[in-house]
Design a protein that fits this description.
The chain has 17 helices and 20 strands. It has 501 residues and is an alpha/beta fold. Helix 3 links the parallel strand 3 and strand 4. It is globular and about 70 Å long.
Length: 501
Amino acid sequence: MKVPATVVNCLSLLASKVAPHVFDLSSGQFHVSLRDQIVRARLLVQELLPADSKGKSLLIIGAGAAGIAAAVAATHRGARVILLEAEDAPMFLQSKVNKRYVGPFMYEWPWRFSGDQTYPPTDGNVCGAFDNLGDCPLFEAKHPLKASEFARAMVRWLNDHAVSEEGSLHVATSVKGISEGLKDYVVSFAESASVFSDGNSSEKPKLNLEGINWWKNEPSCKEVVPDYIVLAAGMGDENVSLPRHDGKNPIAAPDFCGKRFWEDDDLQELAGRGEDVVIVGGGDGALQDALRALTADDHPLALVQRLFAEQQEKDSLEQEMEALRTIEAQARLQASWTLDGKVWAALDGRCKEIAGRLAEQSHIRQVVLNSLRKSSGEKDASVTLLVRENFFDKAYLLNRFLVHLIDRVLVENEHEAKVARCVRFRIEFSANVIGVEEAKAGSFSVHFEIGGTMSVASGSCVAVRFGINKDSIPGLKMISLTGEEKAMRTSFSHVPLPFLV
């Protein structure tokens, strides 16, 4: 008699698997918000453990949002977890950032539930049938909160579960000293784990954890043989540098380096004092910084909420909401099936069209103008956004749409904006940035070329948002992937994630 085959829901396993018994939650991902990281980690654990009744121990490398979520979900399902963090504390990257705001749902706009950052959401339509959320992170935050506050909430949640799961959740920090040995261990573990879920650990190498700092629950046995390894060691180092330039030629000098995304900067303070700002990049980080410099708000959702505060503006925006929701859904789904940048070019075109219609209405223009920073110095301040492509790259619709709306409002109402001394804004598409010249201390000139013509943008602050340096991605450094495997990972990483699991 044949035994019926067990059906395993394996999409998250296929999307994250990089070697036998090794899964990577960080490298090459497309959806990378803190909420996305939590959802991706929980999906992996929820499918991995039921798929292998013998696999009951996990080694998780990295105690950021994904690593913490995976660790708690796994212990909640009866697994033993060793969670290792290279830095001094869990959520280290966000723990000191007070000038960048985050929220589980803020970038799900234009969906209506995006206005409340409580997690799990209070909107029953979002929760649906998912009522077993005992191991889900908990946040009570109506509005987006500082990244440091989000980090503290995650650490408190981890600590609570570490206390309740003392025998099965072990967390170590400051493990940089064993990083090279840990990389070698992951490679040897993957090489020895030749068959998925074979249940035989006798040939697998042992990891010695002697001499490291245990943040919570030091294990009695320091030599472990996990059934699975989950890499959650971060996205990698950002490329925030530009070559030095003297206005005519490159110069032999250390590259100019701007602030990293998860690092407090002076962008808002400088823009608030009426000083010029230059932002290089066309992805979501660049658009976020453009909005931080242009408006007096802590986060972009505030401008949307202001537009919905009065009935006339609300009525105008409501007429466009269905179109915005449709183009958002279409772009997400289309990006799952193609890597062609035309997806974003088409999305930009529709955003410009909708923003243009709204900018023609005086009451919308007034709300937007009132939200912009006002110049306080002798000259009008400016924000310049230099974009390499002729469209914005991957970015949340909220940031993309608001940048287009502000741009169209300033064009439609140039005179009033000038009288009110609103910050000026220019977007230069197809800009080939050549380098940075430091004219004097605290004053920079960014030289760029468009269609063979050289130009310059100057400012007191230069933010460089070129994305992740692929050579620095921790997961790829631990497990070498072939080009074919990388392509497969990329295609899976574009699949949209649920709002909540």
